[in-house]
Amino acid sequence: MALFAQLATLAETLAAEPGRLKKRAAIAEAVRATQAASGSDDAGLLCLYLAGQPFAEADPRKLSAGGALLSRAVKAVSSATDTELTAAYRRHGDMGAAASDVWPDGIAETLTLAEVEEAFAAMAIARTTASRAALVEGLLRRATALEAKYLLKLMLGDMRIGVKQSLIEEAIAVAAEAELTAIRHAVMLEADLARVVRMAFASTLAQAHMRLFHPLGFMLASPVEIPEEAVERFTGKPLPDAEASDAPRIHAFLEDKFDGMRAQLHCGDPTQPGRVALYSRTREEITESFPELVEALQQALRGRKQPLILDGEILAWDFAAEKALPFARLGQRIGRKRIDSAMRRQVPVVFMAFDILFQGEDLLLALPLHERRARLEQVIAQLGPKAVAPLDADHDTAQGSLFVSANPAAPLQRLRLSPTQRVESAEQIDRAYAEARARANEGVMLKAAKSAYQPGRRGLAWVKLKRELATLDVVITGAEYGHGRRAGLLSDYTFAVRGISATGEPELLNVGKAYSGVTDAEIAELTAWLKAHTLVDRGHFRTVEPLRVLEVAFNNIMRSDRHSSGFALRFPRILRIRDDKPVEEIDTLERVEAIYESQPDKDSTELESASRSEEPSINPDDPSPKLRKSKA
Ligand code: AMP
What we know:
This protein is of the alpha+beta class. It folds into 3 domains: 4-176, DNA ligase i, domain 1, CATH 1.10.3260.10; 258-418, DNA ligase/mRNA capping enzyme (D-amino Acid Aminotransferase, Chain A, domain 1, 2-Layer Sandwich); 471-613, CATH 2.40.50.140. A hairpin with a 2-residue loop joins strand 7 and strand 8. Adenosine monophosphate (AMP) binds next to strand 1 and strand 2.
């Protein structure tokens, strides 16, 4: 029986070891030793847990133990006070490390990996929070400080030891003397690290087969600024002069870049009739938020045995105009678990398919795109017209709607084929880009016709060409502490533009909040500065003197009642700190409005309601301090 302490000790060693090769050797040795001493079940659990996975990816079970439940359990077992635990959390930015600071001594190392597995299984089926909490406490009471540290990290799904799953896969290959490619392939198909360890030691990797209902990695695109750059990427050669007659031709498919939610659709498995699942780019299952897509696929697949995995984009869809609605409209549904008829009418959705990854018995990733596309077209021709679902849920007929006047019983086609065209030159791309923008889509995607589907890769076979909005110069008005590596550092910045108050006074109006784009050294410097210039300290959030100017980029501007400006930047990122710029010269609300108005895909009434999401206000009273003189 392998002890959990062995895993905890290994994890602690790995966290302190910067060298990748040394880490790999340490993991391989531990896997080999565990397999030799207690068999491949334990070696499998060791790898799974080291990857921070309480259950295999293919396993739908969930622990349902969040930070609140775990911190209550830590307090109960350790008898630490709130203040002690909060201080420890501030020091580490991590609950596991914080708990080990306040943990009692004198506990023996007896907990086994198999007992942890058993407790996790019981937690997954616990009916009440109280019974789940009791199971967590039971586990923690048997843990030493080091074991508690890693049990908590494992339950939270993030070990933070600088070990990626790919490194564990390499170590398994070394330990079991198996081919790394065979290990990786089996992991992709089975999505179960523990099972693959068992297969590797039993020399049965060749028997790995694709199971539906776990997401494959998503292929991603690299950005390009102009069509010529896309051509250069695909040909690998710089473009000759525009007049030259021998301009290279490319072989690519071009599609509109839709602004929706990327999703992978799994359905048609004869062993699980009627099951349809949708996964997000972050590998979360999001099926519950889109019941009409499930109904439509069930309808289309009735009586057919056709396992399928499709890649595409979920879009809020205007069925009358046959075009996508702005992302903000879809945003109203994202993360919602219960979708009633009112929501189905307010935000009608479709699945816009652009790739096919699996069909029948065949994994299609290695096929060139033009062959995958031909298969996809066939599948959608067959299933698309039948993949229908009405606006209203069967059991719940809404009392009319302000938004859609279509007949509620009319079935609507929910599975669509992303239109594509072949392009060969920068000129054609340019034209298609203008057309896509005119349809209010974000830009275009170009995909090399001969390319294989590379899961999880941002390669050069797909490129995206999209408009960058202008940047804004803003001033920091508030700051929050970060997490993890940024614990104890003020690394999240709320920022504002200039406006004029009702009484004609200059004032600052918050427009967003960003944390990405600044270096560690800049964060450290800003933290010291912001602490010294705090106006109001509310613990986690500080209102600060508005003196530090930032230049921020973003993808979009939305109307929002979250900030005092009435707007919010979408995906803001900090380009640089502009200490060269006085606060009096930062951008104005007028400019924000002008950029907002210039967006062809804005839709003011919808955006306004979108902003009234369930998400709590980040900075509820939005202090918007008065404009002051710039930093001395
Ligand atoms: P980005 O989010 O800017 O990295 O762009 C990549 C995203 O574009 C993908 O994850 C998809 O959600 C989205 N996308 C929109 N339209 C397409 C399309 N036709 N093909 C592939 N991805 C698309």
